[in-house]
Design goal:
Elements lengths: L1 H10 L3 H22 L3 E10 L4 E13 L3 E3 L5 H7 L2 H18 L5 E5 L2 H5 L3 H12 L6 E5 L7 H12 L3 E7 L5 H7 L4 E4 L1 H6 L4 H16 L3 E4 L5 H10 L3 E2 L8 E2 H14 L8
Parallel strand pairs: 2-4, 4-5, 5-6, 6-7, 7-8, 8-9
Antiparallel strand pairs: 1-2, 1-9, 1-10, 2-3
Helix pairs in contact: 4-6
Bound molecules: ligand C2E and magnesium ion (MG) (3 copies).
Length: 282
């Protein structure tokens, strides 16, 4: 059967499909090499706490520093890493690197790490998180795991989340409002935080609809004893409106772009020196 399948795929040879398959295999090989050669790097994006006007912590965002292609953003390689299963070792490296880096900060800020649904579905995600915490010595309450609605929240998944929570780590629901099951998600698991997707923030000054959704999400989160982070904040107008609406935290280019760990140290020192979170916020 395998042979006739091969024959028929030969007969209906589509150069486009063939190319993309070959391309994917090439990326897979390159990802393996990248892991061995330590070509991945985490950038850190500061998140502002709106109640205190101080830094809450940072979200770790992976980049691939390719030898010839330069900096490759996550959306261009995470899907291939997920399909090939390489997301497991890459994800373990990300967890460890983020925890180790957070331990070097001169104040106990939180570090948020994105978990791929593939990584999350593996039974050893608990072991991966425990290992990263033990290896780094980071107190569990400083680690926050971000998952999206692409994780199917069945009984097994909610059990895994509950088990992770017993460690003391925080769990955030990322990109809220863009998936298929936002409301049932909130009923399935007591998330610590809802991250309001940047698409709503982007539209909020022009669209009453976006503002209504943001307002309702914050109200819902408050009633459910969850905090909220607004993503993609780029203007003072957005920040002020989000403050008034009662968002707990803000993240976006207005506060700071994602930056390498060395730059973050300088950013934090500067912020502390000003006794204000950031010059952009004053
Ligand atoms: P996300 O977790 O929702 O991360 C936020 C994304 O929004 C980041 O893109 C960030 O650079 C971008 N962003 C932040 N502020 C602004 C803003 O003011 N304006 C605009 N236009 N964009 C802003 P990035 O780093 O390209 O990451 C994209 C996505 O890739 C992430 O979305 C996340 O889903 C995934 N990702 C990133 N790092 C990791 C990782 O370490 N592991 C996994 N599994 N996924 C990751
Ligand atoms: Mg995220
Ligand atoms: Mg997001
Ligand atoms: Mg996103």
């Amino acid at each position: 059967a395998a042979k006739s399948d091969a024959d028929s795929s030969y007969r209906f040879y589509d150069p486009k499909i063939q190319d993309s398959r070959a391309e994917r295999r090439a990326i897979e090989g390159a990802l393996k090499t990248a892991l061995d050669n330590r070509e991945f790097e985490l950038f850190y994006q500061p998140i502002l706490d709106l109640a205190t006007n101080r830094m809450w912590g940072c979200e770790a965002l992976v980049r691939w520093k390719h030898a010839t292609k330069g900096m490759i953003p996550p959306l261009q390689f995470i899907p291939t890493a997920e399909e090939s299963g390489l997301i497991a070792p890459i994800g373990d490296w990300i967890l460890e690197e983020a925890c180790v880096t957070a331990m070097t900060w001169d104040r106990p800020l939180k570090v948020a790490v994105n978990l791929s649904p593939v990584q999350f579905k593996r039974r050893d995600v608990f072991a991966s998180v425990t290992k990263a915490l033990n290896l780094s010595g980071l107190p569990a309450h400083r680690l926050v795991l971000e998952i999206t609605e692409s994780v199917k929240l069945n009984d097994e998944a909610t059990a895994a989340l509950r088990r992770l929570k017993t460690l003391g780590v925080g769990i955030s629901l990322d990109d809220f409002g863009t998936g298929y099951a936002s409301m049932s998600y909130l009923r399935s698991f007591p998330f610590d935080k809802i991250k309001i997707d940047q698409s709503f923030v982007r539209g909020m000054m022009d669209s009453a609809g976006s503002r209504a959704i943001i307002k309702a999400t914050i109200g819902l989160a408050n009633d459910l004893k969850m905090s909220t982070t607004a993503e993609g904040v780029e203007t003072h107008e957005q920040l002020n409106a989000l403050r008034l609406a009662g968002a707990s935290q803000a993240q976006g280019y207005l506060i700071a772009k994602p930056m390498p760990r060395e730059a973050l140290a300088a950013f934090m020192a500067e912020v502390e020196g000003l006794q204000k979170p950031a010059r952009a916020i004053a």
